Amino acid sequence: MAKGQILLIDDDLGILETLERRLTSKELKVITAPTGETALKKIQKLRPDLIILDLILPGMDGYEVCRRLKKNRRYRDIPIVMLTVKDQTEDKLLGIEAGADAYVTKPYITDELLREVERQLFLARRRCTGKE
Questions:
Q1: CATH code: domain of residue 8
Q2: pLDDT per residue over 110-131, tens digit each?
Q3: CB 39 within 8 A of CB 64
Q4: Closest CA to 65 of 53, 74, 73, 77
Q5: pTM for this model (two decimals)
Q6: Where would I find the H helices in the chain?
Q7: CA 38, CA 129: separation in Å to the nearest integer?
Q8: Which of 55, 12, 23 minimizes the C-alpha distance to 36?
Q9: C-alpha distances in angstroms, 72 versus 40, 80, 92, 130?
Q10: Number of domains making up the chain
Q11: Enclosing H/E stretch for 56
């Protein structure tokens, strides 16, 4: 049985494939989306347990996707891990201000990203059960 459902949002097919393989090996169900618009549609239908979100996307950028989700009562509790090449302090601050729960820069160390995903899923479950 899967330990959670993850939505990967990135326009880089190589990153999507690599991360999907690693996450599924950890018993996580993975859904992918190449754009922010596609992701928002999938979220409405599937409501993932966690989102890994690139910032640089065609059309709507990751900051806007994050802001929209965090403003919506239905989705605001879904943890969002931003995964991006944008590594300047101001980029990270913008990500946190948009509502990101974690910010990981590319190139990333896969094991560190997986630990952050597990941590965010754990914290989300604790919030749901009221054990904070």
A1: 3.40.50.2300
A2: 999 999 999 999 999 888 776 5
A3: no
A4: 53
A5: 0.93
A6: 13-25, 36-46, 62-71, 89-98, 110-129
A7: 30
A8: 55
A9: 11, 14, 22, 21
A10: 1
A11: none
